[in-house]
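Example 395.
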Amino acid sequence: MTTPDRPHLRVAMIGHAFMGAAHSHAWRTAPHFFDLPLRPDLAVLVGRDPARVAEAAGKLGWSATETDWRRVLGREDVDLVDVCTPGDTHAEIAIAALEAGKHVLCEKPLANSVAEAEAMAEAAARAARNGVRSMVGFTYRRVPAIALARQLVAAGRLGDIRHVRAQYLQDWIADPSAPMSWRLEKDKAGSGALGDIGAHVVDLTQHITGQRLTGVSALLETFVTERPLPAAAGSLSGVAGEGTGTVTVDDAALFLGRFDGGAVASFEATRFALGRKNAIRIEINGSRGSLAFDFEDMNVLHFFDGDDPDETAGFRRIVVTEPGHPYVGAWWPAGHGLGYEHGFTHQVVDLVTAIAKGEDPAPSFADGLQVQRVLDAVERSAADDSRWTPIEGDR
Ligand code: SOE
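Predicted structure in complex with alpha-L-sorbopyranose:
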């Protein structure tokens, strides 16, 4: 359903690579499946190279282009800025956009350092006092099976949470000849597997359990330290050319943690798990039941109900495609399944709804800051022989 009579929300998006494509799809699709209170306009796409941004705008459905994000902030006909650039630019763009009175959606991890994330959270709090909203893009929260997991925990179906076991496994750089990219440069990405994918499981486990990590003990490892530079000019990393470049981030991050509700946890984030493409695996064990999820089978949630009689108890495979499941009623008949892109569409739905209602959406920049503090504690622990390291800052 499109809603032409509704007020418009005019979006400018900065960046048009992988995340830009996923966000564009979501902005385009959300009003056609959900009854949104505001109608998103894909108004301006921003990229540094005029030819590349024009091509991307045509492909992704944007009405106009711009090559300098600062010019967009001065425009009256832009209501929201969607930040899909590498992490080193998040703080500058997001803070300037909030100060210009634009709502902001910012990709994860929120920033490359705790100091940047603190400045962003402060800017978000100031802007919120003037009705300007902000959200960080931990999109997997909006996978229906994850949203159902949170509902089950919140309803007490797991009882007291004892164990959290979380992995985010990919293999796209397991081959040492895979080229350099901005994701492998500390200056651009902040950290490696830790911030890129570990941040997701930190957010997800805290979101599902409703608890916060209080401390960690960690190991970081870089298996391949030199990689060929990408041949193609115009690489986002700015390192295109002959020869090799140095990897300055972790390839794998492992850590133990404690949650403030008493649960103990183990985390693993790696891009070297050959054969695992995007395996976000979360298992939670409570005093009354257990949950297990794997993104590679993302429409399914496994639930063990400890109240069942022993004779018939067992993990129940819930196909999370019923109309009564979170977000699913807007889509297809039961059993027809959703994909990676739907999490982004649900993110747009929740953000637009919060803006229209005058509410602060979640996850907030303050939530993004708290995840950043966990990432920082992991790095400090790993640099200090895995010393137990408390997470700093307020709840
Ligand atoms: C690359 O590792 C990446 O695209 C992450 O940056 C995303 O956050 C994740 O959703 C998929 O993998």
